[in-house]
Fold this sequence. Notes:
Distance between the termini: 63 Å
Number of strands: 20
Shape: globular
Radius of gyration: 24 Å
Amino acid sequence: MTPRLAGHAVVDQLLAHDVDVAFCVPGESYLAVLDGLYDARDRIDLITARQEGGAAMMAAAYGKLTGRPGVCLVTRGPGATNASIGVHTAHQDASPMMLLVGQVGTENLGRRSFQEVDYQQMFGSLAKDVVRVDRADRVPELIARAFHTAVSGEPGPVVVALPEDVLGQTTDAPVVRPGGTVRPRVASSDVEAFVADIGRATRPLIIAGGTGWDQPSSRRLQQFAEAFGVPVAAAFRNQDVMANTSEVYVGPLGLGTTDGLSAAVKEADLIAFVGTRPDAASMDDHDLLAVPQPAQHVTHVHPDPDVIHRVYRADHAIVAGPAEFAAALPVSPQDDRAPAEGSALQPERAAWCGRLRENHLRSLATPSAASPDSLAYMEVFNDRVPGDTIISTGAGAYTSWPQRHRRFTVYPSQAGTQSGAMGYGLPAALAARLAFPDRTVVAFAGDGCILMTGQELSTAVRYGLDIVVVVVNNSRYGTIRNHQEAAFPGRVVGTELVNPDFVALAGSFGAHGVRVHTPPEFRSALDACLESGGTSLIEIVTE
């Protein structure tokens, strides 16, 4: 290679790994990388966000939706600490992500230098790995390693610290090409044992989620479940893992989105976790099954062996990615690998699956107690937006609107985080629009949630991103208020909000804004925003 700045070598590695979009807030500590991105500006779209938290959430969402590492670049110290929320989000969601963060020069490390942070200590429990590049010649090697780590096993975020003086040095180290993702192969004996267990079960339940899915594997899981009458529940905020219109889909777990489904988990005699950890939100802080040894037969399918047995002891552990596992499943009773189901089990199995499906359909048609307005507005929404619309959410009581009342039919089409991070919805919508420019993208946010990252409306307008942001305004931190009133009745404090004029705020950024008070007004506003394109915000004023 012709000698070039190490900062340019970083960009060479991004190009070698097919990075075509990156998110950033610029900083002096990585100017040499920015200079390299100038030369690559026709191949990498650099999206400059208004705050590092928003930029990092964009990268986390990009990784979640595409399966390819979302790339975020931030400066040292305050930039890194702001970006940490995106790293935590990616870690909780198992989303592949790369955070490239500037660092003080190597000669001044450990002296409490200007904006110095020990990234190993800071990100050690948040990221899959933390790497520091101390030599220019090792830039290609370590960046390539970081990309591999981000997608191997259970995907997740990797932090790469780039000392300023190293980036300014020259190197002729060659580009390191991607080595290909290593996936564990699915043993035929594991598939045979799994389908045999399914065949013997009276009340089986598959809980599917995590990353590593694609449209073919989503469809394959559906075909298997339908062929053998196995109900499938989605892990928390993974509702797009299978078409919700299937007669064997029985709803999402977590935070009251499907009334009665948590109780059904306890009734099951076989639980199969496919692709998901399991996460605490889906399992009611792990209270649904006995820890560490559930009474139910447990099968756990996951690409990382260190995840299996971590909470629940699995009777059958299968180290495989969800896509690889789904591809190996039989999808017809005529298949030689089909479960040998006893005829006596068939009526009870059918009744079990039918009961869970009916329970899910009732929840779809019933507003939650915390959001009584949700059903009427979501009926309008579902009627007006395309079926493959990508919906993003942050955290708050409003998230039950799309989680409870939307039927997801295409993978991927849901960008929500298991970390409960407020402010995720808007940055995630920007990432979704960049990753899938031909699809409609709608972000849902609460009045508390939107102001966590609301400045990224400016980013959406700057880059001409067609998204609709639906702000549900109840003038409070709704989820916390509900918990507060339940735990300490009559002692409300700290959860009331005084909001700006959201319509005027949207307009100040160059976005279109409109306020509505009723579902018919929402219909008109939604139609107008979808037809006109651009960045728009609809504020729903609700009690």
